[in-house]
Amino acid sequence: MIAQVRRVALVVAAAVLVFSSASSPAVAAPDPIAINVGIQPGDSTAEGFYAQDMGFFTDAGLDVKLTFLLNGPALTSALASGALDLAVASVGVVATGHEHGLPLKYVAPAAMYTGAPPTTTLVVAKDSTVKEAADLNNTTIAINGLRDLTQFTTMAWLDKHGADLKTIKFIEIPFSEMAVAVQQHRVSAALLNEPFLEAAKPITRELGNAQSAIAPRFLIMGWFGNESWIQKNPEAVRRFRSAIQRTAQWANTHHDKSAEILLKYLKLQPEIAKTMTRAAYDTSGIMNPALMQPVIDAAAKYGTLTKSFPAAELIAQP
Questions:
Q1: DSSP for residue 71
Q2: Distance of alpha carbon 134 from alpha carbon 12, whole angstroms
């Protein structure tokens, strides 16, 4: 009798467990947080494209709207106006905004310069007579953004290799239009990045690795926002940082797939993906001031900033 009671009790207990498990609601996924993210053309700024297409933003609980603008200064203006929540731009752009009193802070790293082969190069036309930096004295050079990283990296390389910076004029042209401007000799040189650098090889010739004049290793790009928005939206920032770190790890090891996504957004020919030099992304998820300081120091040396300052001032605090 006792054994029978025990068997009945076990059956009842098992039934209760099954019923409880079946009737308990599943843990709901967190509600997606909507954010507006700014992005610019180029492999070094393409993490937003990859995260969107691969579903990394969605997996992190984000509903991201991407806005495509041509350079860092344009993204900074959109962010300052409130049209964007986060954007990707060079350390030079954010440092310039900081010097002018804009409360801009980085939340996550993006592309890094790690040495040769470069993804950004100073080029001239195939038929150009320019052979060295000094040959560009009294000429005009195209860059993607005035007072941006593209300008003072070019200035640093020219200075290091014997050019007279006082005689050289810089004008702003989108990366996508630089090769034609060089070919038509409307400018004597241009600082091109990938994938536009690879696409321009039939009509241009590489002159020098401009970024090598800054440091052997430094942070090129990072994701930033207004400090007030960052402080008010810590969960959105946490999810975004997580998604971008995952994207960096994926993009560094999946060049074929990431190239397909990049070429889709930038409307370039598929064969470019086979030979272009790919950007290297910082996978740490952490802003390292030591990797930012060379950029700030170079910007101060070549007049983009009035003076240098500690890179830690550009990093958002938890």
A1: S
A2: 90
Q: The tokens 């005035």 sit on which residue?
A: 146
Q: Judge contact between 240 and 34, C-beta under 8 A.
A: no
Q: How open is the CA angle 98-113-84, to the nearest 5 degrees?
A: 40
Query: Do the two domains 33-115+217-314 and 120-213 of this chain adopt the same fold?
Result: yes
Full-model pTM = 0.85
162 exposed, middle or buried (CB, 10 Å; 0-12, 13-18, 19+)? exposed
Kind of pairing, strands 120-125 and 33-39? unpaired
Helix, strand, or coil here: 109?
strand
Fold of 120-213: D-Maltodextrin-Binding Protein; domain 2 (3.40.190)
Which of 256, 191, 283, 247 shows the shortest CA–CA distance to 53?
Answer: 247
Structure letter (DSSP) for residue 9: H
Q: Quick: pLDDT tens for 61-84.
A: 999 999 999 888 889 889 988 999
Query: CA-to-CA distance for 238 and 186, rounded, in angstroms?
Result: 46
